[in-house]
Every structure is written in structure tokens, then in C-alpha cells.
Design goal:
heterodimer, A: alpha/beta, Rossmann fold, 2 domains, seven-stranded mixed β-sheet, 13 helices, 40% helix, globular, B: alpha/beta, 38% helix
Chain lengths: 384, 298
């Protein structure tokens, strides 16, 4: 069945089709439609789930974790300040190995107050031990929710599905709503290897001495390292059932490119249009959209970027005092490789400023005309 | 009195708490857990945030309780318990009792928002605050449950606590939840009865347990029960229940209340208090007692 739905509703449909059992959420612009639709689904019985209408995002994540540990499949959604308020509990989720799936609408952090897109909220949670997927279409949002539950529950690591405020959250697109029976075939009920039950009492998360703590973290990292292969595997399985492949990255005309843009989120689709236009002018551009950000898809990124001379990384975020975060990550992935491209870093679109085809043309012009970036960070569209 | 003696026999023999836990000598909180679980039984899951009990239970891989424990974040005893309840319901376990078990810091201070949220939603949990009147696990810092006049490491003798203890029962009663009770480790029959009663009620139940702390109160470990009893007998910590936020019942009618000085003088944390200051505390206790009697229609 095809439906015209907004990005936020794609999250709701994803949670519904995944048969989320407990949802705990708190409203924040631009996330609200996610939980409004889920509330309706719970109220009219479309979704058999308990919806805990908590008094804060901190409690939203805390309640999800309690439910997850009790053996229920759990979902929530938030944005920006809400995600920041959850920060402590994000560590709790991964450290406690509770496979919650959460939608996060990328919104700029205050102050000044902004409700518009940038990635500093989710990227500030880079090191919390969550799997992070960045999406570029409503279809991808819905499909990724279902895939994320599968990956998360297999490895007992939580997942965050990230989409740009308004550019995706409030944009309506045609979305194929998968058949429930087929989703059930892909995603069996949650059956965790351990849970809170009086039948088999255990203490979870208690005081852990230096004799044990490091091993817990080692195991988390080792399981994180299994994510890329599992994303490929489940992506192929999903493709067989639904005809859409879900991978770690999306390559667009990279094979013969002289210049590859590295992008994420909706900017990745704008980049594809810019690539087409540049190619019409005879410039061999390509686009590598990073979809899986944590764990970082080292192998795929290296495989693509090792064969191109120049790379321009676009960041809708900034690590103050350093660079754009994707720029840092790409450089780190390419460091020490036998063949490494010239890598340039660009910051654009903070606080919801538009990233357009012209932004990419400016980036292409800069990158192709220089053998080295003249500045550590090149700002696109900033009023200096 | 004969009725009291008969009640003694009603405390279940079953022990859900093992020796070998890490509580200090004379710890009221450890006794509180032992008694609470006698009332609740084995089909209980407990959420324990940062507090003394996060340590008392024992370090990984040990546990001194025969029930499942979720060690949750400091401010999330209530929200974690709400989540556990919803999760259990969805996996088909509607029988197990979900207990949130937090100290006074986790209840009066950092966890109050989540507790208010759970109470407003009337989530089906029992929330217990074992109150030792300061942040004892971190080394005796004042909380909003620390009584006026008390020394702590952050309210030194020259600057002892000037503010009154927060009225947590008043706050919880204002939420209109089905059941609220105070309990004391010096009155085990009463306490076990209250946990049994709470277990049979649906919705948010709040039990405030008075739990002396020799290390933090600078009292003798062997005086824990004596202090807890004096707190009741002086009217400092009366034993009562509130149903639906409105119907108040005094469980132990103290005919002749003992002077608060008797209670204070056994604790080093009040040693600096002068007579006029003790008199002021007495006035405060009297006023609160009168208010509780009035609420109970006495």
C-alpha cells in the first residue's frame, strides 16, 4: 500500500509495523507528529502497545529502559534539547544493553532558540554507544526503523534513526507501507537473552568493580564492530522481501568521479541533483551519503574514497575548536591508507539555513581549484 | 497492647534478603528492605537508583536479594518502575509487584519530578522512600529531607540546616494517589502490614519509611530502633495512612508524646543545638502533630 506521509509519520508507521510494545515519549517540536500518530494508533487499537506519557525526555528514556529490561520492544522519539536531556540515559541504554529504537529529529541546539535542522544534537551523542542511522527520505525512515529493531535486538545495542527537521520531518512523500505479515516474517517478536523476572532473579547494572567494568565495555565495542556486517546482511534480507536495499552508505556516481561529496541526511539528496548538474557541465562529481554513522562504516568509506582524487565533506554540524564532525571522521578513516584523497571540509546549513544545489557547486568550485584547503574549515553561505 | 502482640505473629518467616549485604552496623535502610519484602513477597521487581541501597545489595556479581533488581539512574526510580510495569504488562505478567526503592535524595530532590509524573499518571507501582535524612551514600550531605537544626558535611555546625524538612507526604497527598503510608523500622508489624496492604491496591502507592543512619546521624548502631521508636513517640515521625489523598488515618495514637529533646540528644548531628533552638524544634513538631491529628479527624 502506498501512502503520502510526512517523515515524522514514517517513524510512527515504522514503530507500528515493528509492533513496538511500550512507547514513552515527551513532545518537542519538530517531533510531535511522531507521538501524536502513535497515541492515536494505541488508542484505536491499531497498535497494541502501552504509551506512557511521561513528564520529560529523561523519564521517557528511563521508562523505555525499564520496559526493555522487562522484555518489551520499546520505541521513543525526540529532538535537540530533549535528546540532550536524555544524555545520561543514552549511556544507560547501551551500557545496560537495552535495544531501544528512537527517532531523533535533527534540530539545532539553543541558544538562540531554533527549531530548524542541524546535526549537533545527535552528533553530541556520538560516543554514547548507540547505533546511528541518518536518513534522506521518508521511505528510508520507515524501512530503517524496522531494520534497526532487527539489528539492535540481535546485538542488544540501541539504535537512533536520525532525520532532518522540516526538510524531512514535515515533508510529505509517497511511501510504500510494507505488508504487516511480511514485516513479521522479517522481524520476529523480541525475545531477549535476559530480562527482569521473579522466575529468575538477577541484579542488573549493580556496582561493578575495576575487575569487571572494562570487560563490559570491551564486549560492547566488540558487538558494535559486528553492526556493519549485520546491516549489510539484514539490508539484503529486507531487499529480498521488500525490494529496497538498506545499506551503510549510498554511492552515487562515485566510480569514475574526480570529486566526491560526502554527505548525510537530506543534503545527500540535494547533492545528487548537484552531481547531475555538474556532470552535465563535464565535471565528474559523485556523492557518498553516509547512512550508518555509528559504528562508522570504515570499509565502505575507504573502498569508495580510495579511488577518487578529491573529497569534499559537507557538515551540517560543528565540533567547536575542531572541524565538522563527518570531516573528522572521514579523515580518520582515510588516515594511513595506501591511497588517500585530498579531503576538504565544509560547514553549511547550521540552524536550518538551506543547503542548495548552489552550495554544492560552490563546494565543487573551491575543491577543484585548489590543491589544499586554505582554511581549516570552509564555511558555505555564512555572513562573515 | 494485646492486639499488637497478636500482630507480631503475622510477620512472614520467609527471608528474601540474605546476610552478607554491605550495610553499615545499625543501618535502618537494610532492615526496611527486609521488612518491606516480607510484606511484598518474592514476586516483586525492585528499581533501585543511586542511594545507599545501590551498594548495600552487593557488587556484581553478587546480590543480597532474592528478587530481581534493576539498578537505575539516580532520578529515575519512578520512571524506571513505570517502564518496568508497562513492559511486564505487555509480556503478560500482570501479577508481579513493581517496587521503586529510593533514598530521600532520590525522592525529595533529584527524583521528585519523575515521581510526580508517575503519581499524576497513577502508574501501578509502589514507591518507597527510605528516609535517612541526608545524602548518606556520598558522605552525609544535606538533602531537602534533612531536618532543621541538623549538622551535615554541607551544613556545618556553624551553619547548621536552617530550612525545614520538605513535606513530601503533603506533596504526594496533593496528587490524590490511592495509598500513602508512613512506616518505621521500629514498628515492624505495622510496616509489614502496610506493604501487604499496598500490594493489594492498584495505582501509585507511596510509602515513606523512617530509616535511622548511625554513620550519618552520629548515633550508636544499637540505638537505631530506639531512635526510630522515639521519632514516633515524640510525634516527629507519626505513623499514618492516607487514602486517595483525603482519608487520613493515624495508626498509632501517641497519648503522651515524649519531648523531642530525648530524640535529639541521642544524635551527634544535633549536639550543637542550644535550648532555645531545641524549643523551636519542639514547637515545629507540635504544630505538625496538631495538623496531622486534625487531618485524621482527631
Amino acid at each position: 500500500m502506498k501512502k503520502v506521509i510526512m517523515g515524522n509519520h514514517a517513524l510512527s508507521y515504522g514503530a507500528m509495523l515493528s509492533r513496538a510494545q511500550v512507547i514513552a515519549a515527551y513532545p518537542i517540536t519538530p517531533q510531535t507528529q511522531v507521538v501524536e500518530l502513535l497515541s492515536e494508533m494505541c488508542a484505536d487499537g491499531t497498535l497494541n502497545a502501552k504509551f506512557i506519557k511521561v513528564e520529560s525526555e529523561h523519564s521517557a528514556m528511563a521508562a523505555c529502559l525499564g520496559a526493555s529490561l522487562a522484555g518489551a520492544r520499546t520505541f521513543t522519539a525526540t529532538s535537540a534539547q530533549g535528546l540532550a536531556l536524555m544524555h545520561e540515559m543514552l549511556h544507560w541504554a547501551s551500557g545496560g544493553r537495552m535495544p531501544v529504537v528512537m527517532g531523533n529529529i535533527n534540530r539545532a541546539m539553543a541558544p538562540g532558540w531554533s527549531i530548524w535542522a542541524d546535526q549537533n544534537d545527535s552528533l553530541s551523542e556520538r560516543d554514547t554507544g548507540w547505533i546511528q542511522f541518518y536518513c534522506a527520505s521518508n521511505q528510508e525512515v520507515l524501512d530503517t526503523v524496522i531494520q534497526a529493531f532487527k539489528v539492535s535486538e540481535k546485538l542488544m545495542i540501541p539504535s537512533m534513526i536520525v532525520l532532518d527537521a522540516f526538510a524531512l520531518s514535515h515533508t510529505y512523500e509517497v511511501v510504500e507501507i510494507p505488508d504487516q505479515a511480511k514485516v513479521d516474517q522479517f522481524l520476529p517478536p523480541f525475545n531477549p537473552p535476559w530480562r527482569l523476572t521473579p522466575d529468575d532473579p538477577h541484579a542488573f547494572g549493580g556496582l561493578t568493580s575495576p575487575d569487571h567494568y572494562m570487560e563490559l565495555r570491551y564486549k560492547l565495542q566488540k558487538d558494535m564492530e559486528k553492526v556493519p556486517a549485520l546491516v549489510e546482511e539484514t539490508g539484503k534480507e529486507y531487499e529480498q522481501l521488500f525490494g529496497r536495499y538498506l545499506g551503510q552508505v549510498e554511492e552515487y556516481l562515485c566510480a569514475d568521479a574526480d570529486l566526491v561529496f560526502v554527505t548525510s541526511g537530506t543534503a545527500g539528496y540535494t547533492a545528487r541533483v548537484a552531481v547531475d548538474e555538474l556532470r552535465e557541465k563535464g565535471i565528474k562529481a559523485g556523492n557518498l551519503r553516509i547512512k550508518l554513522f555509528r559504528p562508522f562504516p570504515f570499509e565502505r568509506v575507504r573502498a569508495v574514497l580510495s579511488r577518487v582524487p578529491k573529497v569534499a565533506v559537507l557538515d551540517r554540524n560543528i565540533s567547536y575548536g575542531h572541524h565538522g564532525i563527518f570531516y573528522q571522521e572521514v579523515k580518520s578513516a582515510m588516515y594511513g591508507q595506501p591511497v588517500s584523497p585530498l579531503i576538504f571540509g565544509f560547514i553549511a546549513g547550521l540552524g536550518g539555513r538551506d543547503i542548495t544545489r548552489d552550495s554544492f557547486k560552490e563546494i565543487a568550485e573551491y575543491t577543484l581549484s585548489k590543491n589544499k584547503a586554505e582554511e581549516e574549515i570552509v564555511w558555505i553561505g555564512v555572513k562573515k | 497492647m494485646s492486639k499488637e502482640r497478636k500482630m507480631t505473629l503475622t510477620i512472614p518467616r520467609e527471608e528474601l534478603m540474605s546476610p552478607g549485604h554491605l550495610a553499615c552496623q545499625g543501618c535502618g535502610a537494610s532492615l526496611a528492605m527486609r521488612l518491606a519484602l516480607k510484606g511484598l513477597g518474592q514476586r516483586t521487581i525492585v528499581c533501585i537508583p543511586a542511594c545507599c541501597w545501590a551498594v548495600i545489595d552487593g557488587p556484581f556479581p553478587h546480590s543480597s536479594l532474592d528478587i530481581p533488581i534493576y539498578h537505575c539512574a539516580f532520578e529515575t526510580a519512578a520512571s524506571s518502575a513505570s517502564g518496568v510495569r508497562a513492559g511486564l504488562d505487555m509480556v503478560g505478567d500482570t501479577e508481579t509487584t513493581v517496587l521503586a526503592w529510593a533514598g530521600d535524595g532520590g525522592t525529595f530532590d533529584i527524583g521528585l519530578q519523575a515521581l510526580s509524573g508517575a503519581a499524576e499518571r497513577n502508574d501501578d507501582i509502589i514507591y518507597t522512600c527510605y528516609d535517612n535524612e541526608a545524602y548518606m551514600n556520598t558522605g552525609i550531605q544535606r538533602s531537602s529531607a534533612t531536618p532543621v537544626g541538623a549538622w551535615t558535611t554541607t551544613t556545618p555546625v556553624k551553619h547548621y540546616k536552617k530550612e525545614r524538612k520538605k513535606d513530601i507526604i503533603g506533596i504526594m497527598a496533593a496528587h490524590g494517589i490511592p495509598y500513602i503510608a508512613t512506616a518505621s523500622v521500629a514498628y515492624p508489624e505495622d510496616m509489614v502490614k502496610k506493604f501487604k496492604r499496598a500490594r493489594e491496591i492498584k495505582g501509585t502507592r507511596f510509602i515513606h519509611v523512617f530509616a535511622p543512619c548511625p554513620a550519618g546521624w552520629k548515633s550508636r548502631p544499637e540505638d537505631t530502633i530506639k531512635l526510630a521508636r522515639l521519632a514516633v513517640q515524640t510525634g516527629y515521625f507519626p505513623l499514618y495512612e492516607i487514602e486517595d489523598g483525603e482519608k487520613w488515618t493515624l495508626n498509632l495514637k501517641v497519648k503522651e508524646r515524649k519531648p523531642i529533646a530525648e530524640y535529639l540528644k541521642l544524635q551527634g548531628r544535633f549536639r550543637h543545638l542550644k535550648e532555645d533552638e531545641i524549643a523551636m524544634i519542639q514547637q515545629e513538631v507540635d504544630a505538625r502533630w496538631a495538623k496531622i491529628l486534625k487531618n485524621c479527624g482527631l
